[in-house]
Amino acid sequence: MTSVSRRKAHKITPMKKRSSIISFLLLLIFVVPAICPVAAQKAKNNIHGRTERIKRVENGLLPPVIIKGQPVAVMNIAERMEFYKIPGVSIAVINGGKIEWARGYGVNRAGTDERITPETLFQAASISKPVAAIAGLRLVEQGKINLDSDINERLVTWKVPENEFTREKKVTLRRILSHGAGLTVHGFGGYAMNESVPTVTQILNGEKPANSGPVRVDIAPGTLWRYSGGGFTIFQQVLQDVTQKAFPALMQDMVLKLAGMHHSTYQQPLPESLRPQAASGHDSKGKTVAGDFHVYPEMAAAGLWTTPSDLARFAIEVQKSFLGKSNKLLSKKMTGQLLTVQNGEWGLGLKLDGKGEALRFGHNGANEGFQCLMIAYNRTGQGAVIMTNSDNGGQLGGELILAVAREYGWADYAPIEKTLAKVDPVAYDPYVGEYEFSPSFKLTVTREVDKLFAAAVGERFELLPESETRFFTLSDISIEFVKDFGGKVTHLLLNKTNRGKKIK
């Protein structure tokens, strides 16, 4: 018979029990007090260090573009908010794969004392797109839709009209999410609170009361990158047809809840119960948008209400999934596709930039009265989200994000240095006019004495000459005017790829 060795039970005598109690008391009296001050001091130092970092960010705003030979002015957030007539700003900073701090500045509505807090809701505008894209990719992983099949195979309520451009190449989910489906309608203006709101079908067909043109294919799918909010509205209809759920509900279940975005909703219009928590939108002059904000039935393209902290949680989940540390939203493999260049500089719903440790993803957004920005690094666990309740918020956001980048040592993220060219202002005259990128997006160029300006979607900026035909702005927008063989200006290129035809 095999013998089994057993450990003999050790009996604790009263004397040994008393000794153990004494040792424990000595630990409480001498050791714990010695440790606690160290831990307390460490926590105090961390808080102090974070406070100092926040102050340096608040007082270290930088312009996205600096001009060679000219001094660089470091700016203060309060002063810049006043300069741009921006009532409110909210920011969340990601460091070490978590939200290090979040703060609000200013007020919800001009002329009030309702302070912006980290929980204040803003319209995410086009940052709605990458968040919505996750739901589509989850359906791909579940086998309910294919990234590369004809999208009409899954559409039920409405179909993409076939034409000569779709005979050989089809509109697919991959092409929609990467803005390569050849679809029209750049963006949407939304609807005032007292206006009738169209259905998704009416929007896609360009039927009243829709205030945008029909969404159609006018370029062979897969041949050219062109930003299309219209494509994401088709995507919204696909998600509803496949899941048989209303869009806000399916997004709540498939993305928002899983990412911990508990202060977010795609409900349009915003429910009355949430309106006290929401910021009001403001135009470029600081005036409140009529009705406080517009309604966006184009929810996938522009309809998300959220906070910087919630968008930071979304970005952190994407970062973790990329590194194989989380699969709450997507598998590592699918996140790899999400963050792989598909077309131009775009992945599946996200703009991509950088190489190596500087690999990063992001998106910006501009709705009526709101502008925002999200940037996050794939590997380093860094990033930030900035949301504003102003049409001028994009400029402030760019300055603020550079302050964060400098403070936290972001790789390959600093102001761009440009050389100012000497150009005779007379050369500007042929550039004056209106340029059409799509029926819903036009840019107007004007000359004022010796300066050139451009205006679009409520924003106006000076064009600074890099050469006689190439111009830039301090907010890092590039414009190149293109002439025909006879020297007549025919169109311009916005940020190198967006072509606007001169119509006036």
Helix-strand blueprint:
Blueprint: H1 14-58, E1 65-67, H2 77-84, E2 88-95, E3 98-106, E4 122-123, H3 128-141, H4 173-177, H5 200-205, H6 229-243, H7 247-256, H8 299-302, E5 305-306, H9 308-322, H10 332-338, E6 351-353, E7 360-367, E8 370-377, E9 383-388, H11 393-408, E10 416-418, E11 433-438, E12 441-448, E13 451-456, E14 459-465, E15 470-472, E16 478-483, E17 489-494, E18 498-502
Parallel strand pairs: 1-10
Antiparallel strand pairs: 2-3, 2-9, 4-5, 6-7, 7-8, 8-9, 11-12, 11-18, 12-13, 13-14, 14-15, 15-16, 16-17, 17-18
Helix pairs in contact: 1-11, 2-11, 3-6, 3-7
Give an overview of the whole structure.
The chain is of the alpha+beta class and 504 residues long. The protein has two domains: 79-414, DD-peptidase/beta-lactamase superfamily (Beta-lactamase); 425-502. It has eleven helices and 18 strands. The chain has helices spanning 14-58, 77-84, 128-141, 173-177, 200-205, 229-243, 247-256, 299-302, 308-322, 332-338, 393-408, and strands at residues 65-67, 88-95, 98-106, 122-123, 305-306, 351-353, 360-367, 370-377, 383-388, 416-418, 433-438, 441-448, 451-456, 459-465, 470-472, 478-483, 489-494, 498-502. The strands form four sheets. It has an eight-stranded antiparallel beta barrel with strand order 11-12-13-14-15-16-17-18. A six-stranded antiparallel beta sheet has the order 3-2-9-8-7-6, with helices on both faces. A hairpin with a 5-residue loop joins strand 8 and strand 9 (383-388). Helix 2 (77-84) runs antiparallel to helix 11 (393-408), helix 3 (128-141) crosses helix 6 (229-243) and helix 3 packs across helix 7. The relative contact order is 0.14.
